[in-house]
Protein backbone atom coordinates (compact mmCIF):
# COMPACT_ATOMS: atom_id res chain seq x y z
CA UNK A 1 0.00 0.00 0.00
CA UNK A 2 1.28 3.49 -0.84
CA UNK A 3 2.02 6.21 1.71
CA UNK A 4 -1.22 7.93 0.72
CA UNK A 5 -3.03 4.61 1.06
CA UNK A 6 -1.72 4.14 4.60
CA UNK A 7 -2.73 7.69 5.49
CA UNK A 8 -6.26 7.08 4.21
CA UNK A 9 -6.37 3.71 5.99
CA UNK A 10 -5.32 5.25 9.31
CA UNK A 11 -7.78 8.12 8.92
CA UNK A 12 -10.68 5.81 8.15
CA UNK A 13 -9.77 3.46 11.01
CA UNK A 14 -9.94 6.44 13.36
CA UNK A 15 -13.17 7.78 11.86
CA UNK A 16 -14.87 4.40 12.25
CA UNK A 17 -13.42 3.65 15.68
CA UNK A 18 -14.56 6.95 17.21
CA UNK A 19 -18.37 6.49 16.85
CA UNK A 20 -18.60 4.21 19.90
CA UNK A 21 -17.15 6.99 22.07
CA UNK A 22 -19.38 9.67 20.54
CA UNK A 23 -22.53 7.56 20.81
CA UNK A 24 -21.75 6.88 24.46
CA UNK A 25 -21.48 10.63 25.13
CA UNK A 26 -24.58 11.50 23.10
CA UNK A 27 -26.97 8.92 24.59
CA UNK A 28 -26.26 10.25 28.06
CA UNK A 29 -28.56 13.17 27.11
CA UNK A 30 -30.35 12.19 23.89
CA UNK A 31 -32.62 9.25 23.26
CA UNK A 32 -30.85 6.80 20.90
CA UNK A 33 -33.37 7.50 18.12
CA UNK A 34 -32.57 11.22 18.32
CA UNK A 35 -28.86 10.42 17.96
CA UNK A 36 -29.55 8.14 15.00
CA UNK A 37 -31.75 10.79 13.37
CA UNK A 38 -29.11 13.48 13.73
CA UNK A 39 -26.42 11.22 12.34
CA UNK A 40 -28.41 10.09 9.30
CA UNK A 41 -30.07 13.42 8.48
CA UNK A 42 -26.91 15.52 8.69
CA UNK A 43 -24.72 12.85 7.11
CA UNK A 44 -27.16 12.34 4.25
CA UNK A 45 -27.48 16.07 3.57
CA UNK A 46 -23.69 16.48 3.51
CA UNK A 47 -23.33 13.66 0.97
CA UNK A 48 -26.35 14.67 -1.13
CA UNK A 49 -24.56 17.28 -3.31
CA UNK A 50 -21.87 14.75 -4.19
CA UNK A 51 -24.48 12.13 -5.09
CA UNK A 52 -26.41 14.64 -7.21
CA UNK A 53 -23.29 15.80 -9.00
CA UNK A 54 -22.42 12.18 -9.78
CA UNK A 55 -26.02 11.54 -10.92
CA UNK A 56 -25.97 8.54 -8.61
CA UNK A 57 -29.56 8.59 -7.34
CA UNK A 58 -31.66 7.93 -10.43
CA UNK A 59 -30.23 4.40 -10.99
CA UNK A 60 -31.55 3.42 -7.55
CA UNK A 61 -35.20 3.69 -8.58
CA UNK A 62 -35.29 0.30 -10.28
CA UNK A 63 -33.86 -1.36 -7.14
CA UNK A 64 -35.97 0.46 -4.54
CA UNK A 65 -37.20 -2.67 -2.76
CA UNK A 66 -33.73 -3.99 -2.03
CA UNK A 67 -32.56 -0.49 -1.15
CA UNK A 68 -35.29 -0.30 1.51
CA UNK A 69 -34.37 -3.73 2.86
CA UNK A 70 -30.69 -2.80 2.96
CA UNK A 71 -31.46 0.47 4.75
CA UNK A 72 -33.52 -1.36 7.34
CA UNK A 73 -31.00 -4.06 8.20
CA UNK A 74 -27.82 -1.98 7.88
CA UNK A 75 -28.89 1.38 9.35
CA UNK A 76 -32.44 1.77 10.73
CA UNK A 77 -32.40 -1.11 13.21
CA UNK A 78 -28.67 -1.28 14.08
CA UNK A 79 -28.04 2.41 14.70
CA UNK A 80 -30.91 2.80 17.17
CA UNK A 81 -30.07 -0.46 18.92
CA UNK A 82 -26.40 0.50 19.13
CA UNK A 83 -27.42 3.63 21.01
CA UNK A 84 -29.53 1.58 23.43
CA UNK A 85 -26.64 -0.84 23.95
CA UNK A 86 -24.32 2.01 24.89
CA UNK A 87 -26.69 3.13 27.63
CA UNK A 88 -25.83 -0.18 29.30
CA UNK A 89 -22.37 -1.24 28.10
CA UNK A 90 -19.06 0.58 27.83
CA UNK A 91 -18.13 1.92 24.41
CA UNK A 92 -15.02 -0.31 24.36
CA UNK A 93 -17.02 -3.47 25.05
CA UNK A 94 -19.57 -2.51 22.39
CA UNK A 95 -16.86 -1.85 19.80
CA UNK A 96 -15.24 -5.20 20.47
CA UNK A 97 -18.50 -7.13 20.22
CA UNK A 98 -19.26 -5.49 16.87
CA UNK A 99 -15.94 -6.91 15.63
CA UNK A 100 -17.80 -10.22 15.38
CA UNK A 101 -19.45 -9.02 12.16
CA UNK A 102 -16.96 -10.76 9.79
CA UNK A 103 -17.45 -14.05 11.61
CA UNK A 104 -21.25 -13.84 11.47
CA UNK A 105 -21.08 -12.85 7.80
CA UNK A 106 -18.92 -15.89 7.06
CA UNK A 107 -21.47 -18.15 8.76
CA UNK A 108 -24.40 -16.59 6.85
CA UNK A 109 -22.62 -16.94 3.51
CA UNK A 110 -21.77 -20.56 4.27
CA UNK A 111 -25.30 -21.47 5.36
CA UNK A 112 -26.76 -19.85 2.24
CA UNK A 113 -24.32 -21.70 -0.01
CA UNK A 114 -22.33 -18.67 -1.16
CA UNK A 115 -19.14 -19.60 0.66
CA UNK A 116 -17.39 -22.56 2.21
CA UNK A 117 -15.49 -23.15 5.42
CA UNK A 118 -12.19 -24.99 5.65
CA UNK A 119 -10.43 -26.17 8.80
CA UNK A 120 -8.65 -22.86 9.30
CA UNK A 121 -11.85 -20.83 9.09
CA UNK A 122 -13.76 -23.20 11.40
CA UNK A 123 -10.92 -22.82 13.90
CA UNK A 124 -11.26 -19.06 13.59
CA UNK A 125 -14.99 -19.18 14.25
CA UNK A 126 -14.45 -21.28 17.36
CA UNK A 127 -11.71 -18.96 18.66
CA UNK A 128 -13.87 -15.91 18.01
CA UNK A 129 -16.85 -17.33 19.84
CA UNK A 130 -14.64 -18.32 22.77
CA UNK A 131 -13.43 -14.72 22.91
CA UNK A 132 -16.99 -13.42 22.97
CA UNK A 133 -18.00 -15.96 25.61
CA UNK A 134 -15.11 -14.90 27.84
CA UNK A 135 -15.82 -11.21 27.30
CA UNK A 136 -19.50 -11.65 28.11
CA UNK A 137 -18.85 -14.04 30.98
CA UNK A 138 -16.21 -11.88 32.66
CA UNK A 139 -17.53 -8.37 32.00
CA UNK A 140 -21.28 -8.49 31.41
CA UNK A 141 -23.77 -8.55 34.27
CA UNK A 142 -27.02 -10.52 34.20
CA UNK A 143 -28.95 -7.26 33.92
CA UNK A 144 -27.10 -6.48 30.69
CA UNK A 145 -28.38 -9.52 28.80
CA UNK A 146 -30.88 -7.33 26.94
CA UNK A 147 -27.95 -5.31 25.64
CA UNK A 148 -26.27 -8.52 24.48
CA UNK A 149 -29.40 -9.50 22.53
CA UNK A 150 -29.51 -6.01 21.02
CA UNK A 151 -25.85 -6.14 19.97
CA UNK A 152 -26.52 -9.55 18.42
CA UNK A 153 -29.21 -7.98 16.23
CA UNK A 154 -26.78 -5.18 15.33
CA UNK A 155 -24.07 -7.67 14.34
CA UNK A 156 -26.48 -9.74 12.24
CA UNK A 157 -27.73 -6.59 10.51
CA UNK A 158 -24.19 -5.39 9.80
CA UNK A 159 -23.37 -8.83 8.40
CA UNK A 160 -26.44 -9.07 6.16
CA UNK A 161 -26.19 -5.51 4.79
CA UNK A 162 -23.02 -5.99 2.71
CA UNK A 163 -24.34 -9.33 1.47
CA UNK A 164 -27.44 -7.57 0.11
CA UNK A 165 -25.19 -5.01 -1.56
CA UNK A 166 -22.94 -7.68 -3.04
CA UNK A 167 -25.78 -9.77 -4.43
CA UNK A 168 -28.59 -7.29 -5.21
CA UNK A 169 -27.21 -3.74 -5.43
CA UNK A 170 -23.62 -4.20 -6.58
CA UNK A 171 -24.16 -2.53 -9.97
CA UNK A 172 -25.31 0.74 -8.42
CA UNK A 173 -23.12 3.77 -7.63
CA UNK A 174 -21.86 3.45 -4.07
CA UNK A 175 -22.36 7.08 -3.10
CA UNK A 176 -25.94 6.90 -4.34
CA UNK A 177 -26.73 3.84 -2.23
CA UNK A 178 -25.15 5.32 0.88
CA UNK A 179 -26.71 8.78 0.51
CA UNK A 180 -30.18 7.41 -0.22
CA UNK A 181 -29.96 4.96 2.69
CA UNK A 182 -29.02 7.70 5.13
CA UNK A 183 -31.84 9.98 3.98
CA UNK A 184 -34.40 7.15 4.01
CA UNK A 185 -33.33 6.16 7.52
CA UNK A 186 -33.64 9.76 8.71
CA UNK A 187 -37.21 9.86 7.38
CA UNK A 188 -38.05 6.74 9.42
CA UNK A 189 -36.44 8.18 12.55
CA UNK A 190 -37.90 11.69 12.17
CA UNK A 191 -41.33 11.32 13.88
CA UNK A 192 -39.85 9.41 16.81
CA UNK A 193 -36.99 11.88 17.16
CA UNK A 194 -39.46 14.77 17.17
CA UNK A 195 -41.48 13.24 20.00
CA UNK A 196 -38.40 12.28 22.03
CA UNK A 197 -36.37 15.44 21.43
CA UNK A 198 -34.91 16.93 24.63
CA UNK A 199 -35.72 20.44 25.78
CA UNK A 200 -32.06 21.20 26.46
CA UNK A 201 -28.69 19.60 25.76
CA UNK A 202 -25.07 20.34 26.55
CA UNK A 203 -22.54 21.37 23.90
CA UNK A 204 -20.77 18.04 24.43
CA UNK A 205 -23.83 16.02 23.44
CA UNK A 206 -24.68 18.26 20.49
CA UNK A 207 -21.07 18.25 19.33
CA UNK A 208 -20.91 14.46 19.57
CA UNK A 209 -23.88 14.07 17.23
CA UNK A 210 -22.46 16.65 14.83
CA UNK A 211 -19.05 14.98 14.67
CA UNK A 212 -20.72 11.59 14.39
CA UNK A 213 -22.67 12.78 11.35
CA UNK A 214 -20.16 14.98 9.55
CA UNK A 215 -16.87 13.23 10.33
CA UNK A 216 -17.69 9.62 11.19
CA UNK A 217 -20.40 9.25 8.53
CA UNK A 218 -20.14 11.71 5.63
CA UNK A 219 -16.40 12.40 5.69
CA UNK A 220 -15.63 8.76 6.49
CA UNK A 221 -17.43 7.56 3.38
CA UNK A 222 -15.55 10.07 1.23
CA UNK A 223 -12.26 8.83 2.70
CA UNK A 224 -13.43 5.28 2.07
CA UNK A 225 -14.06 6.01 -1.61
CA UNK A 226 -10.55 7.49 -1.87
CA UNK A 227 -9.03 4.45 -0.14
CA UNK A 228 -10.81 2.04 -2.48
CA UNK A 229 -9.58 4.03 -5.48
CA UNK A 230 -6.04 4.10 -4.08
CA UNK A 231 -5.62 0.56 -2.74
CA UNK A 232 -8.65 -1.51 -3.79
CA UNK A 233 -11.59 -2.89 -1.77
CA UNK A 234 -9.63 -5.73 -0.17
CA UNK A 235 -7.97 -3.31 2.27
CA UNK A 236 -11.36 -2.40 3.70
CA UNK A 237 -11.58 -5.72 5.53
CA UNK A 238 -8.53 -4.86 7.65
CA UNK A 239 -10.29 -1.86 9.17
CA UNK A 240 -12.66 -4.25 10.93
CA UNK A 241 -9.71 -5.47 12.99
CA UNK A 242 -8.43 -1.98 13.84
CA UNK A 243 -11.73 -0.39 14.91
CA UNK A 244 -11.97 -2.24 18.26
CA UNK A 245 -8.47 -1.13 19.24
CA UNK A 246 -9.45 2.49 18.57
CA UNK A 247 -12.70 2.09 20.50
CA UNK A 248 -10.98 0.50 23.51
CA UNK A 249 -8.18 3.10 23.56
CA UNK A 250 -10.53 6.08 23.32
CA UNK A 251 -12.91 4.60 25.88
CA UNK A 252 -10.06 4.30 28.37
CA UNK A 253 -8.44 7.68 27.64
CA UNK A 254 -11.53 9.88 27.26
CA UNK A 255 -14.22 8.17 29.35
CA UNK A 256 -11.96 6.46 31.90
CA UNK A 257 -13.47 3.09 31.02
CA UNK A 258 -11.57 0.25 32.68
CA UNK A 259 -9.39 -2.14 30.70
CA UNK A 260 -10.95 -5.26 32.16
CA UNK A 261 -9.84 -8.87 32.21
CA UNK A 262 -12.59 -9.65 29.72
CA UNK A 263 -11.25 -7.06 27.28
CA UNK A 264 -7.65 -8.21 27.68
CA UNK A 265 -8.57 -11.84 27.00
CA UNK A 266 -11.46 -11.35 24.61
CA UNK A 267 -9.86 -8.74 22.33
CA UNK A 268 -7.03 -10.88 20.90
CA UNK A 269 -9.27 -13.95 20.63
CA UNK A 270 -12.06 -12.12 18.78
CA UNK A 271 -9.65 -10.39 16.39
CA UNK A 272 -7.71 -13.61 15.73
CA UNK A 273 -10.98 -15.46 15.23
CA UNK A 274 -12.19 -12.82 12.78
CA UNK A 275 -8.96 -12.99 10.77
CA UNK A 276 -8.96 -16.79 10.57
CA UNK A 277 -12.73 -17.05 10.19
CA UNK A 278 -12.76 -14.79 7.15
CA UNK A 279 -9.55 -16.17 5.61
CA UNK A 280 -9.91 -17.15 2.00
CA UNK A 281 -6.95 -18.45 0.04
CA UNK A 282 -8.97 -18.55 -3.18
CA UNK A 283 -12.52 -17.50 -4.09
CA UNK A 284 -15.00 -20.36 -3.84
CA UNK A 285 -16.13 -21.62 -7.26
CA UNK A 286 -19.79 -20.77 -6.69
CA UNK A 287 -19.24 -17.47 -4.91
CA UNK A 288 -21.66 -14.74 -5.87
CA UNK A 289 -19.98 -12.01 -3.86
CA UNK A 290 -19.50 -9.10 -6.21
CA UNK A 291 -16.67 -6.62 -6.38
CA UNK A 292 -18.65 -3.78 -7.90
CA UNK A 293 -18.58 -0.22 -6.57
CA UNK A 294 -21.39 -0.58 -4.11
CA UNK A 295 -20.24 -3.90 -2.65
CA UNK A 296 -16.77 -2.49 -2.14
CA UNK A 297 -18.14 0.61 -0.51
CA UNK A 298 -20.02 -1.16 2.26
CA UNK A 299 -17.47 -3.83 3.01
CA UNK A 300 -17.06 -2.26 6.42
CA UNK A 301 -19.61 0.50 6.48
CA UNK A 302 -20.73 1.28 9.81
CA UNK A 303 -19.64 1.84 11.91
What would you note in describing this structure?
The protein is mainly α. It is 75% helix and 0% strand. The longest helix has 29 residues, at 203-231. The chain has one domain (3-297). Residues 284-303 are annotated as: Disordered.
Features:
303 residues; mainly alpha
What's the layout of helices and strands?
Layout: H1 3-17, H2 19-26, H3 32-53, H4 64-85, H5 91-98, H6 101-111, H7 119-139, H8 145-169, H9 174-196, H10 203-231, H11 236-255, H12 261-277, H13 293-297
Helix pairs in contact: 1-10, 1-11, 2-5, 2-10, 3-4, 3-9, 3-10, 4-8, 4-9, 5-11, 5-12, 6-8, 6-12, 7-12, 11-12
Region (Disordered): 284-303
Family: Belongs to the EamA transporter family.
Organism: Microlunatus phosphovorus (strain ATCC 700054 / DSM 10555 / JCM 9379 / NBRC 101784 / NCIMB 13414 / VKM Ac-1990 / NM-1)
